[in-house]
Amino acid sequence: MTAAHRVLLIEDDLAIRRFVRLALEDEGWQVFEAETARRGLIEAASRQPDVVVLDLGLPDADGKSVIAELRSWSPLPVLVLSARDREEEKVAALDAGADDYLTKPFGVPELLARLRVLLRRRQQLPAEAAPSSRARFGEVVVDLATHEVRRGAQAVHLTPIEFRLLAALIAGQGRVLTHRQLLLQVWGPEYLDRPHYLRVHMANLRQKIEADPAQPQHLQTELQVGYRLVGLALQAQ
């Protein structure tokens, strides 16, 4: 019998905490609760959960400070669950190190789906460290060591910038990467005020590797926030 997933829920609203806990326990998951930022960080260190579900509006601190503190010592996946629906808030939380962001009100199926993605990604982390690893999504196979890309039986030629952009999304392992994060990684800090560079190269990348670039299945847009790579599997050679 496989061990139950361990979820830490940091949320000050008792009704939401109860709702989420019952939904997760119905899936057989073990849930730990904290209603403050301070208690949440203590629980994260002592309970060693597999994933954290975090509200931003905590009574003793903003949730983004919790993310920043966690990121100073742990790669633990963090799903933000917040009523703050402004794009600026989402971008700030993701830039702070959150892996995903779900806005209240939310449905249980979507919450569970997002958590399963984060848990799968966590299980794949050891493979990411392999220097000669390959990445696969759909029919596309990317050799991160040789920079070779194939879609089915056909070789795909990517420019150096397109490959760096794809490699950054692969390294993100399915998490949302903000425009700022991608511009920094692919072009550098002097290009932070040129988001059109990212749009143009993402469009070119989709043309080369998506079956239907107008309705991408893998290189997906998070509106006004950034991009994520969906359906990724990593494999060591």
Automatic annotation (TrEMBL):
Keywords: DNA-binding, Phosphoprotein. Residues 132-231 form the OmpR/PhoB-type domain. The modification 4-aspartylphosphate is found at residue 55. Residues 6-119 form the Response regulatory domain. Residues 132-231 bind DNA. Pfam families: Response_reg (PF00072), Trans_reg_C (PF00486). PANTHER family: KDP OPERON TRANSCRIPTIONAL REGULATORY PROTEIN KDPE, REGULATOR OF RPOS. This is Response regulator. It comes from Comamonas terrae. The lineage of its organism: Bacteria, Pseudomonadati, Pseudomonadota, Betaproteobacteria, Burkholderiales.
